[in-house]
Amino acid sequence: MKDWMKQIPASELKTYEKAGFMGEAKIGERAALIVVDVTYGFTGSEGLSIEEAIAEFGPACGPVSWETMPRIAKLINLFRELKRPVIYTRSHMYNNLFAGKATKSTRSLSPEPKFNEFPPQIMPRADEWILEKTRASVFFQTPMASYLVQNCIDTVVVCGVSTSGCVRASTVDCFSHGFNTIVVDDCCFDRSQFAHCANLFDIHAKYGTVVSLHELEALMLGRQIKA
Asked: How far apart are CA 216 and CA 183, in angstroms?
């Protein structure tokens, strides 16, 4: 059983499974990867504690960001090797991202440049699209859906931050637009482990399929998944 599933009461897991909510992973012929908001504003600088990271940037997730980073880099490289599209997103205006929910200490109409910089481990290539967004979902008032349709994408793989925020919002909208949606659990992170687990459970039950990087590699490379 996946670690995040262990946080869900067994009786509730059984109820969802009986109701037919928990689906199996499938992947289409033309997949694209969306790397959601993995910038310093949501990670903080490497080596900082969570308290230090939040002092640097209010939305930062701290150490868990850097624990996840090597797996995100490996996922990006997988798509590059298979010559599949890799799309990056970042927040055009942080103040709009959470609207009235941000406090004065975290609001900023024009975040400092480093906020939207990508760490070198996952730096976009010159030919990879960086989508600027103003709300949680990568689809809200952006050309994302048009881009995916024009490129005949049938499966969208999602990773990034935060699991309970922009990853979840983007996944729900991706599902709503009719795309087969996969979330890579160990390539997502959140400032709250509870929120991370609960949202992966909800996404897997209703809006997409949640798999590990190992499982996704097997799916994309046509290998049998091994535990």
From this structure: 9
